[in-house]
Design goal:
The complex is a heterodimer. By secondary structure, chain A is mainly α. Chain A has helices at about 5-10, 20-30, 35-55, 60-75, 85-105, 130-145, 150-160, 165-170, 175-190, 200-205. The chains are: A mainly alpha, B alpha+beta. At the A-B interface, helix 3, helix 4, helix 6, helix 7 and helix 9 of A face helix 2, helix 4, helix 5 and helix 6 of B.
Amino acid sequence: MATCLTLSDLRDLNISVPPGGRDADLISRIRAGDPAAFESLYLEIHPRLFRFICRMVPNPDSAEDLVNETMLVVWENPDGYDFSCKLSTWIFGIAYHKALKASAKSGRMGSHVSVDDFAEVLPDRKPSDTRTLELDNWLSAALETLSPEQRAVIELTYYNELPYQEIALILGCPENTVKTRMFHARKKLKPLLKDLLPDMDVYFSEES
Amino acid sequence: MMLNKRRSSSHDELAALLPWYVNGTLKGEELAKVQAHVAECPKCRTELAVQRGLSERLARAPVPELSPQLALARLRNRMERSGEATVPPVAVPRKSRIQAASSYRRRRFDPRYLVHTAIAAGVLLLVLPIDWKHLERWAEPGFHTLSDRPSRGESELGDLRLVLDRSLDAARREALMDAIGGQRLESPGAGDVITVRLSGAGAGKPDVVAAVEYLRRQKGVLFVEPIFQPEGP
């Protein structure tokens, strides 16, 4: 049964935009065509947005293009924002749908992409980090087994630390769908996580 | 039997909320219920520990890094090329701009529009040789209409926007500047984006195309584009 959020629910969750708050100020300046407001928003949201899109599309070039396409929508159509959610939620929603389309177009779903594909833009690592790099690579590979929708839920929950209600707004789906995607993602990841979480052997031997 | 089924369904519902218990976004009644359940359910306590481990790993997992300033510079260039960046919405209301674009798109695929375009192109081909003398004026040096901007590589100022890899040392940066005959302009607040003015060989016009092509071949040059708008001193 789909759960719909009312405006008062959003207020309780502190998701809606308080009048006169920073989001409201930024968007009204962008609506007035203030490039400084747009740049300030761009620089603030870029790291999280780029990372989120990178989790969904095959290469950093596409991710950069998608970030810029998303932000162009914000610049060209700021009236699309209706204050019913946080400004960042609206922007992540645009990015999610663009990334999903790009991902479907490139046929990435289910295909394996190694962390090596990102080698040129990955942060520098010391040789002593080899083991960590191996595990990180393994984690990236594990995430690749998920659908883009499941990866989005994982990323928005664990990295962006968003409540499931806000994730539902970004993904444009009912809250229960978010929980179901998380459930299936965790189930799929479980056998792949043994190496990542060696202290949890008992847990992994329980059900598998 | 009934009681066990109810317990299990309650367990499943609360276990489904664990990821948001881990990220600290559960509130009110849901938070209290999950806390109480975790205290008495060993399975959920173990699951919680696994999820915390996964959360920490994910936070550390490598993702590509891209300088926001560099990405913004690229977007600005793209907008400048399409004439978007500096057009205030007061001059051309946004909605009408979008509507104009979509109506243009509609017209592009209208067969009548294509016929009109073909006729106009034919007439232009007939007129061009006759009015050649008039057109020749456009080739005179220094002749510009108000709307014709220098094309790519013909920046009159010979300015470039450049972003270099942070690992490049000062000597290498200087060598690159020397190679293109460029001088770094101070651009406060530009972050990693450097504005470079080309001096040109002798009294000649700086060869922006050659400089851009040269820089694009060099290791450590992340981004280079000519600037079409006057900038800096």
